[in-house]
Amino acid sequence: FHRIYKIWTITEGDGKEKEREALFNTQIHDFAEAAQEAFSDPSHQKLLLGDPFFRDSLLQSAQMIVPYATWLPIYIKNLDIYPSVGQNQQKPSNLAAIVRQKRVKEKEVEDTVTALDSNGRIVERLDGYKLRIIRYQNNNPGITDLVEPDKRDNQIVNQILKSLEISMEIDLPKILLKYIHGIHDLPKKERHKLELPLLREVVIQAAKKCCNLQNTCEVEWLESGKPVVRGLDDNHLEISLAHDGRLCLCTAGNAPQGCDIAPVTSRNRQNWTSLLGKNQDTLLNTLIDGTDHLDRAGTRIWAATEALRKAYGNIDALFEIVGKENDAVLFRAKTSKGSIFVLTISVNLTRGPGRIIALTVQKSVQSETALLQPEPSEYEELLDTAYFETNRKGPQGQTVFIHRFPVTFRPNAQLSRTVYFSNYFFWIGEIREAFLWPILKKVRQQFATGKWGSVTNYSYIKILGEATAQDKIEIRLWSSGNGGPADSTMDLTFDILKQKKDDTYERIAWLEQQVTWVSILDKGIVKPEPYPAYYSGLIKNILPQYEAPNSPDPMPEFLLDLAGQVANDKEEYRAPAGPAIRPVLYEQIIETSLDHSNLAGNIYFANYYAWQGQTRDRYFFQLIPKYFYGTGEKGELLCIESRVDHLREAMPFDRILITMALKSLKVASALFYFEYFRLDPDGTRLKLAYGEQNTVWTTRNSEGKPEPKPFPSPVQKAFSRAVAY
């Protein structure tokens, strides 16, 4: 791949007429020269198919148009070689080449790669070149990032700095990065012309933080080459600028500014000592003994020295390390002007080698202790919460068991950083079992015999709102009835609410569930049995006391109209009636363990909804992986209804196959059908459960509210192929 020496264009493609492709330059060498480069033994230096390094550049070029994954070649239909080019040539031939993506099917990609000489004649062509994706790389740049990397690289650097600002107790300047290729080689006047917009932008950002930018200000250069800001009157703002061969860095703040950006450069120890000076040897050794290799340590010290010089001029100073975190090092230089701090970070950006960025920074006046240790009064909102409560305000006069709790980090797994739908089922499981607290010891003892248990027959949820971190949730539990064989089946209702700042409520979900008390006859085989007396005595309180509808109290429901907006859309597909729902879009096997179990010893019911989400998300991720980067700016799939009906129990260490089929499709919504099978050692499948999930593809409006939008083009095409198959 080292033969790829220039990339002209990378085209994203639109999934329709416009193909994903890249145009680049590569080289083919004389075959004898390539053979010597490949093999030292002369007896091995006969290459039947020509220069292998040139061909490797054609094979590797596919990575440019699938940057979000790691792949391996698996098949080439035709390899066309025209041997007139490259043989017996004294100089390498420069060739133009183009790689085009012809089709994508699940985890396989098919490309065509063509190399041409300067007269437009084909030199070599790979046709039907197939690759298999073996790993998705979520943090890799996308095609747009490769072409226009500024946004991604600024996000990378600012995310690192934002974390360090708190952990290292420092105040950071405003910082901006921009690719300006060849800036080093330009005359000063042309260079300043390109740098000026970047400096103006960082000044505007910094002025918002520390100045009242009512007057116009200008950036000028001193004779020394240092940029300065004019026109801010009494407001003090300083700037600094640095660049390597292609990347420009600038900072602005109300303290002396110095910055540097330096590609990690390879030198031997003697050369680094000559460059840095012998007085830096101790520091160099300390960095190498830590996490840095020689070249990164040397580049780090060099960049820190340059940043210090730009801020304070040529002053004598020795650095000492006063802070380290991951690949960041905070230096302190003791000088005649006092202690000066320089932060250095090691980053891998979209283009080019690893780099060191160095910035002069100020120690924060407010200590980390003050930031992370709030006053006791700040916990009053949590301390005053009545986490469990009962009242007799059920819709049929029954007792309502209430659980309140705050939302923290883990449940907010939706791309928009809101609560992921499967968490509601784990939450209601907790309150369902907390209700049994007065008899929980007896239940535990009876379940521990392995002969008794409680099974979930079905659960159904309608999602009507959203919650996120620091929201306070209130779940209200009651029973709407009891019956079934042995009178041991109970219908439960869970009203899931979000408490607002004004102490009013908003409904985020309504959930119904049916459970049965059973005896356990064999692995996964149960029989309904009457409740024990101690159990009956407790549950009678939450059963209906008189006849009335089991309906919720009226209150706001943020997402109620989302389902309404897609309800009347025309169906584009409806699976034919019959025992099997087709087409099956995706399937996966779950290897269960004790982690999926509970006090009753079976597989806990909420796992079935987590597996729905995993199966659904994996299908969408393989089609549109770049949509899963960020916080849902390109759109996200929301679950508005979900249900699972259980046929028999699963037990720990069962292998469970989950299949997802398309039952109904509209422009912006899809109803998926799930089946759960136990895979026995002899290969037979035993059906455990089935379920459905109603989903809507959404983007957020200016107020942050989800609105239905057509599925992305790759998803539409995948649905069409599946339906037509």
What does this structure look like?
- It contains 16 helices and 31 strands.
- By secondary structure, the chain is α+β, with helices and mostly antiparallel strands.
- The protein has four domains: 131 residues, Roll (Thiol Ester Dehydrase, Chain A); 220 residues, no CATH class; 184 residues, Thiol Ester Dehydrase, Chain A (Roll), CATH 3.10.129.10; 167 residues, Thiol Ester Dehydrase, Chain A (Roll).
- Strands 18, 19, 20, 21, 22, 23, 24, 25, 26, 27, 28, 29, 30 and 31 form a 14-stranded antiparallel β-sheet that branches.
- Helix 7 crosses helix 8.
What is the share of helical residues? 10-25%
Poorly predicted residue ranges:
367-373
Strand content: 35-45%
Shape: globular
- Secondary structure category: alpha+beta
Q: What Rg is obtained from the alpha carbons, in whole angstroms?
A: 32 Å
Mean pLDDT: 88
What oligomerization state is this entry in?
single chain
Total of domains:
4
Tell me the layout of helices and strands.
Blueprint: E1 6-11, E2 21-28, H1 31-38, H2 52-60, E3 69-81, E4 93-105, E5 108-116, E6 122-136, H3 143-147, H4 150-167, E7 170-171, E8 174-179, H5 188-210, E9 218-221, E10 227-230, E11 238-243, E12 247-253, E13 259-263, H6 269-276, H7 281-289, H8 294-312, E14 319-325, E15 328-335, E16 338-347, E17 355-363, H9 368-372, H10 380-383, E18 388-391, E19 400-406, H11 423-434, H12 440-448, E20 452-463, E21 472-483, E22 489-499, E23 505-522, E24 525-528, H13 533-539, H14 560-567, E25 573-574, E26 584-591, H15 607-623, E27 636-646, E28 655-665, E29 669-679, E30 685-700, E31 706-708, H16 713-724
Antiparallel strand pairs: 1-2, 2-4, 3-6, 4-5, 5-6, 7-17, 8-12, 9-10, 11-12, 13-17, 14-15, 15-16, 16-17, 18-19, 19-21, 20-23, 20-27, 21-22, 22-23, 23-24, 25-28, 26-28, 27-30, 28-29, 29-30, 30-31
Helix pairs in contact: 6-8, 7-8
